Amino acid sequence: MAVTPIAPDAPDAGVDAGFAAGLDVAQAAAQAGALNAALAAALTTASRELPYPDGRPGRFLDAGAVTELAQRFGLAPRRVEIAALAAAICPLRYARNLRAFTLAEQARLLGSKAALIGLGGLGGGLLENLVRAGVGVIHAADGDVFEETNLNRQLLSRLDALGRPKAALAAERAAAVNPSVEFVATAAFLDRAGMETLLTDAQVAVDALGGLKDRGALVAAAAGLGLPLVTGAVAGYTAIVATVLPGAPSPADLFGGGGTGPAAEDVLGCPSPAVMAVAALQAAEVIRLLAGRPPALAGKALLIDLETMRFDTVAL
Amino acid sequence: MSDTVTVRALATLAPYAPPGGVASVGPGETAGELADRLGLEADAIGAVLVNGNPAAMETPLSPGDVVSFVPPITGG
């Protein structure tokens, strides 16, 4: 079952619409130029000057103005935000990203796509971070429904949503927090072919799976498409985060193990602080990559022990 | 330096850590022999690290090494 996309894409400017109306290339370009000029003027009118907390002058566009301009110009909201950022106008919702991301990096995030496999503990925390950061397109999949044992750690789970699909709750959350994000969630467990479809046109694949069963297929799907894969795993207060570049070793090769006993997480559980910490660390790496920065964890794994608050980096 | 190594036993392996996280090490003793001495079963160990680098059960230990035993970790 596919959950309805929240914000269907729209033409970038007027060019596609121009072709659809049977205009020639020059007419379409002229129409696009006029639209861009009109949008630029509207962005200036709808935004306001305010200082950043460090005193720098800034110009900001609030969420209501983004919605209004998107409707007026027939654009997806994230396209309005990208146009604003190009004019050095910061959508107010990203104002406190300050210099963590430049305006150009913020625009790049809004123009990017992440593919997220899993909407449970790691996936819920990842989604929250990526949606708030303004990752423009997120396609996600999880075939599970929420159950009571998820409530200890899974951000998207709620007592009043037990039995409902994780994909549906994820779509509601994304829309409620940042409607500029074009979020599509598939309520299904994906095989390798399904993962490849989900990963198509993404710049980063994100592993929020539990267990080893499907991780091999995801590593193969990401490698086949030449995508970096940001992965994480938790057992008790011990956790691992890593970025797997195509063809490079995965932490599952080192830490997955071939033991015959019960998995460590089946003995120790997955407590919320460990799950949320790993989701946040994975999100930081995903956002780095989508912003155009080099990965911080390529070829290595971050080994985390919250019991002792020790963080070690291990070469894979 | 005394002939000891620091042992970090993570997650489900934590109960096998020696007192104070320090174990004696004999000449040429390997990570696997140390694991045996600590009561760690080989199939419970996902990875062995020596001084933060991936190692094998056959890796010989030297005094002052930091040996980490990590079980398979795959939850989420």
Which structural traits does this protein have?
heterodimer; A: 316 residues; alpha/beta; Rossmann fold; 2 domains; eight-stranded mixed β-sheet; three-stranded mixed β-sheet; 12 helices; 18% strand; elongated; disordered N terminus; B: 76 residues; mainly beta; Ubiquitin-like (UB roll); five-stranded mixed β-sheet; 1 helix; 5 strands; 11% helix
Describe this protein's structure.
Chain A: It comes from Solidesulfovibrio aerotolerans. Chain A: This is HesA/MoeB/ThiF family protein. Chain A: InterPro entries: ThiF/MoeB/HesA, ThiF_NAD_FAD-bd, Ubiquitin-activating_enz. The complex is a heterodimer of chains A (316) and B (76). By secondary structure, chain A is an alpha/beta fold. Helix content of chain A is 41%, strand content 18%. Chain A has 12 helices and 11 strands. Chain A has helices at residues 15-20, 25-46, 63-73, 77-86, 103-110, 121-133, 166-177, 192-199, 215-224, 251-255, 264-268, 272-290, and strands at 48-51, 57-61, 90-91, 113-117, 137-141, 182-186, 204-207, 229-235, 238-244, 300-305, 310-315. In chain A, the strands form 2 sheets. Chain A has an 8-stranded mixed sheet, sandwiched between helices. In chain A, a hairpin with a 2-residue loop joins strand 8 and strand 9 (238-244). The radius of gyration of chain B is 12 Å and the shape is globular. The model of chain B has no long low-confidence stretch (mean pLDDT 93). In chain B, strands 2-1-5-3-4 form a 5-stranded mixed sheet, covered by helices on one side. The chains are: A alpha/beta (316), B mainly beta (76). At the A-B interface, helix 6, strand 8, strand 9, helix 10 and helix 11 of A face loops of B.
